[in-house]
Design goal:
The protein is an alpha+beta fold. Helix content is 46%, strand content 20%. The protein is built from seven helices and six strands. The protein starts with a strand and ends in a 7-residue tail after the last helix.
Length: 219
């Protein structure tokens, strides 16, 4: 979402788009204009803004094409809003969380060609670490297998297996020259990964309670 602000460029006033929330703290506070000038031999404009929230007060740059359009092209810096995952997922695969966060940051910076393969790599960590949590005695075998084989051979829960297979299908599309699933994109991949993470949490917590509360003898 964008709002309009008036900036002065070489003694002329223009209405331009700015984010309606600070790209660093993400609060909907007043966006203060600091200054602006033309760049790239007059082909574009760079403006400096400041977040008025007292806990932030940081500056950020907005880049525009021809100033008469006032259309926002990009903003820097941007602090990504990272997804939260269940504690059980963090326990099973902390590496998944770190790789997913890097992919998510790339996506929010508009680097989708990098983000897609990053999400695919993150999911491979998640599904292999989950398989290792089920069969720790076969950890070396799981690490050496292709992710698809791990899903087939070690993931018994049909709900996890279903979304895991589709996560890998779309993840592979992000790393290959030609796409097989042209009606789906990286946003669908992210949704499937989050679904898999939620099913993994349910499975993990269910097993934990069953183990800590065994059936009473004679029940």
């Amino acid at each position: 979402m964008h709002i309009k602000r008036s900036i002065s460029v070489r003694n002329h006033s223009y209405q331009v788009e700015v984010p309606d929330a600070c790209p660093i703290c993400h609060r909907h506070s007043e966006i203060q204009v600091v200054g602006a000038d033309v760049i790239d031999d007059g082909k574009a404009v760079q403006a400096i803004f400041r977040c008025a929230y007292t806990g932030c007060r940081q500056h950020f740059f907005c880049y525009y094409g021809p100033i008469t359009s006032g259309v926002l092209v990009s903003v820097r810096p941007v602090k990504p809003v990272l997804s939260a995952f269940p504690a059980a997922v963090s326990t099973i695969s902390p590496t998944f969380l770190s790789v997913f966060a890097e992919a998510e940051e790339a996506a929010q910076l508009g680097l989708n060609q990098i983000a897609g393969p990053g999400y695919r790599k993150a999911f491979e960590y998640l599904i292999k670490d989950y398989a290792k949590s089920i069969s720790p005695e076969r950890a070396s075998e799981i690490e050496a297998k292709f992710a698809g084989a791990v899903v087939n051979d070690f993931v018994a829960d049909p709900r996890i297996q279903a979304v895991a297979k589709r996560s890998l299908w779309l993840g592979n599309d992000e790393t290959h020259y030609l796409r097989k699933w042209s009606d789906h994109d990286v946003s669908d991949l992210v949704t499937l990964i989050k679904l898999a993470a939620n099913w993994i949490e349910i499975d993990h917590l269910s097993k934990s309670y069953v183990e800590s509360m065994p059936e009473p003898k004679g029940a």
